[in-house]
UniProtKB/TrEMBL annotation:
This is ABC transporter substrate-binding protein. It is found in: Periplasm. InterPro entries: SsuA/THI5. Keywords: Signal. Belongs to the bacterial solute-binding protein SsuA/TauA family. It comes from Limnobacter parvus. Residues 48-257 form the SsuA/THI5-like domain. SUPFAM superfamilies: Periplasmic binding protein-like II.
């Protein structure tokens, strides 16, 4: 048997004071863990325009926050940065959010800040589809796994009467798709802007966009890690206020906003002007967002992208309307608590 001397863990007074000291350190650590301004992973996409305008016009600083904007190629990669703990917030379409919630990761969607029914593009090598989209059966289609590109690919092919399981899917990064199409490494790609325009420029006369009705209303959203949400609601609110100011500037000065979009994303002004009417910048949480996510969850299960045995999460539990409701109650649909 061990004899515990005074001053060791056996001394209850020492033990209690030691625990108290450890708790003090732990609390102090938690209070300082978020002392720096937030790190936000922002997709380098026209959809992220409010963040670029807010930074350029010092709107974040106006509301007492100076976030570090970390660019990434695609919302799926931004969300991965969030899941890995490298950032505190991330921008993403709703599809990576759906997959991440399905995986049980601790994230929350705070607001939608833009939606667009025409951001996704399906491009083909003309030689690969001489008789239309059905000619792609057995051919290679490039896409970004578990992203809006993935979902749009399936929806687009089904619309044109082609079972997605009859093509050869080739998972690539968004910034690899244009080059793969131009080199003939894939026969078609499903991609968002500005990479659709890049693919057209790289492919020249060999590549074309296949027109289709607006099959998919894509949203772009602000996601936060749950620990950060609980600890730093004031800073998140400051970010929301800056985004709201940026959106009002975009609406008031569209020509300047278009120039910012072209400069930041590398898309020509001609392309930006043509696409401009398709963007709807607005802070919101609408019922349609939840409906879309639920539909995508059914698609993911049906196509085997998540295990058929998985129970669908209650996505409402991963959407927090409280901060947006304080900023603008009318921006929140009744479905969100």
């Amino acid at each position: 048997m061990f004899n515990l001397l005074p001053g060791t863990i056996g001394d209850s007074r020492w033990f209690k004071s030691g625990v108290a000291a450890l708790l003090f350190v732990a609390v102090a650590f938690c209070q300082t863990a978020w002392a720096d301004n937030p790190r936000i992973a922002v997709s380098k996409s026209p959809l992220s325009l409010p963040f670029f305008v807010a930074k350029e016009k010092n709107l974040f600083a106006k509301h007492g926050v100076e976030p570090q904007l970390i660019e990434c190629i695609g919302g799926n990669r931004c969300v991965q940065e969030l899941v890995d703990g490298k950032v505190d917030m991330a921008t993403s379409s709703e599809l990576p959010f759906m997959f991440t919630v399905h995986a049980g990761k601790p994230i929350t969607l705070i607001t939608t800040f833009v939606n667009n029914k025409d951001d996704m593009k399906f491009l083909v090598r003309k030689s690969a589809a001489p008789e239309g989209i059905k000619s792609l059966a057995g051919k290679r289609v490039g896409y970004v796994s578990k992203s809006a590109s993935h979902y749009f690919m399936d929806v687009f092919l089904l619309y044109h009467g082609l079972d997605p399981r009859t093509v050869v899917p080739v998972a690539l990064r968004a910034d690899e798709l244009a080059g793969a199409l131009a080199k003939g490494e894939v026969d078609a790609i499903s991609v968002w802007e500005p990479w659709g325009q890049v693919a057209l420029e790289m492919g020249g006369s060999k590549v074309e966009v296949v027109s289709s009705p607006r099959l998919y209303n894509q949203t772009f959203n602000l996601l936060v890690g749950n620990e950060y949400r609980l600890a730093e609601s004031k800073r998140i609110s400051a970010v929301l206020m800056a985004l709201e100011d940026a959106i009002q500037l975009i609406k008031k000065n569209p020509d300047e906003a278009m120039r910012t979009m072209a400069r930041v994303t590398g898309v020509s002004m001609a392309i930006v002007k043509a696409a401009w009417p398709t963007y709807r910048f607005e802070l919101s949480l609408q019922q349609s967002l939840l409906t879309t996510i639920q539909g995508q969850a059914r698609w993911a299960k049906r196509e085997g992208h998540v295990a058929a045995t998985n129970t669908d999460p209650e996505f409402l539990d991963f959407i927090d309307s409280s901060l947006l409701r304080k900023l603008n109650p009318s921006a929140v649909d009744f479905v969100y608590r």
